[in-house]
Write a structure and sequence with these properties.
alpha/beta; Rossmann fold; 7 helices; binds uracil; purine-nucleoside phosphorylase activity; 239 residues; binds 1-O-phosphono-alpha-D-ribofuranose; 31% helix; 28% strand; globular; 5-stranded mixed barrel; transferase
Length: 239
């Protein structure tokens, strides 16, 4: 069996999947962290690999950018490939001045300015996309053990990277730590299929202060995020 966007055979994808937006970050994780990694997907250059980490079978699959693209991969993985856990490993822009470039954010919640979440329900319902508590607690405990600088809290997943109409001060007042572009979809689809998801984000730039990182760092850096996601994944990996 394959799907329109994944050419893996059944059994080739692990039950726990790391999901960066960037396909080259997926390749970087496979090349640098996984043992015996085998590429199972190249459709649309959204690379997917399965290998082992600390003896557990783990996959890494890029989602592309944006809620629509991420929704396709989350649905195909959860619904057709029997995946149980998706851990997004993404970059994000900081909104809160308590959060700095290269800090980690564990996305407890994921607001959105899109209609994506609304479309699951009757108009009067405002569903709250949230992280899986066990994944979140495990990642936070591991980040403490490792001494990583991290924040846990609410985030926003937006439809436009370039949007100067968003009132970031007001979002910060309401405790929104950072902005990215996929988690409302991944969290909602995890809920739809009774599965589990967590976003572990690295701050690549600061929307308010203007701090930033290089595109090379965004593609291949951020090793703390990758290590934290993998160590979280092995605690949930079924095989
Ligand atoms: O670094 P990734 O995981 O792609 O995530 C962030 O980077 C992209 C925008 O540059 C969006 O996909 C956003 O969510
Ligand atoms: O989606 C994103 C990712 C990084 N930085 C941003 O400002 N937005």
């Amino acid at each position: 069996m394959t799907t329109p966007h994944l050419e893996a055979e059944m059994g080739q994808i692990a039950d726990t999947v790391l999901m960066p937006g960037d396909p080259l970050r997926a390749k970087f994780i496979a090349d640098n962290f996984l043992e015996d990694a085998v590429q199972y997907n190249g459709v649309r250059a959204e690379y997917g690999f399965t290998g082992t980490y600390k003896g557990k079978k783990i996959s890494v699959q890029s989602s592309g950018m944006g809620l629509s693209s991420a929704s396709i991969y989350a649905t195909e993985l959860f619904k057709f490939y029997g995946v149980n856990n998706i851990i997004r490993v993404g970059t994000a822009g900081a909104i809160s001045t308590d959060v700095h470039v290269r800090d980690l954010v564990l996305a407890e919640g994921s607001c959105t300015n899109t209609r994506f979440v609304h479309n699951f329900f009757d108009p009067e319902i405002e569903f709250s996309p949230i992280a899986d508590f066990n994944l979140l607690r495990t990642a936070a405990d591991l980040a403490d053990e490792k001494g990583f600088t991290y924040h846990v809290g609410n985030t926003i997943g937006v439809d436009r990277f370039y949007n100067d109409r968003i009132d970031n001060d007001r979002l910060a007042q309401f405790g929104i730590l950072a902005t990215e572009m996929e988690l409302p979809a991944i969290y909602s689809i995890a809920a739809e299929y009774h599965k589990h998801a967590l976003g572990i984000l690295t701050i690549s730039d600061h929307i308010v202060t203007g701090e930033s990182t290089t595109s090379d760092e965004r593609q291949t850096g951020f090793k703390q995020m990758m290590e934290l996601a993998l160590d979280t994944a092995v605690k949930f990996a079924g095989e």
